[in-house]
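Record Phosphate transporter subunit ATP-binding component of ABC superfamily, 288 aa.
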Amino acid sequence: MNPNKPVTAQAISSKEGGFTLGPLQMGPACCDPEPVIEVENLSLRYGDKTALDKVTLDIYRGCITALIGPSGCGKTSFLSAINRLTDLIPNCVIGGHIRVDGQDIHTTESNVQALRQKVGMVFQKPTPFPLSIRRNLSLPLCEYGVTRRSEIDAISEQVLRDVGLWDEVCDRLDTTALALSGGQQQRLCIARALTLRPKILLMDEPCSALDPMASGVVEDLISRLQGHYTIVIVTHNLAQARRIANYAAFFWVKERAAGQLIEFGRCQHIFESPTDPLTAAYINGTRG
Ligand SMILES: Nc1ncnc2c1ncn2[C@@H]1O[C@H](COP(=O)(O)OP(=O)(O)OP(=O)(O)O)[C@@H](O)[C@H]1O
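=>
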């Protein structure tokens, strides 16, 4: 799909690409890196405060990339820049380039609605709308022009199956989503992001507000999404990054300085034989 063109309802409800039948199986292995997000010299500031300085990083299609690093090093800012959530922050200024599927997302022709259809976001705290489970899923579809009830129902069922929630909620779709447990709410939010058939999912600490059991269920779900979607996940849980990610990007911030990318590579490399001493110190717990 051309990211500069407005999204059409047909593109969302067409059968090509995207949805699976039945429970989601683990996707294809991430072994042939092809950049889908290219970040070049990204600098980001909020007024006088520079949060990121000249970050250059490729994110590979179908892989899980974990963003790790201490608090305040700019991980969330980096994530927010990719689907232009930073547009909503009045004093946020961005320099450099971000290309998604080869298209610069900050050109004047770039269509933010199309970008956000392609690049979904899941937040730290589950954020279901205070509406029924069914309405949580139909609302984004209606906003993007999918209005036929039968299509909405089919897509809703499929995404609930994909996140392993269908059996748990199929008999209460018209009850409030706020009555779901925290882990169920987070899986519903992931399902809601999937309704629009994104290619990329940005996840900002999606398990950190959940109890260990629910966190394990969501983590397992993220692993199964690998290969079907390109995932960029911020996590402070290094063990989790090691378990689920194919690649890791280590960010660091010196006092009163801007966040920088220190090292990027295969997860195994970053965790077992990092090149930079700072990465080694952070992984070993002696810094950060
Ligand atoms: N809206 C904002 N206005 C001003 N400064 C901000 C804003 N959002 C973030 N910052 C600052 O930018 C820097 C980077 O913040 P960011 O949230 O991106 O870091 P982070 O690595 O995700 O941190 P954490 O792991 O604690 O979530 C921090 O110094 C933060 O205080």
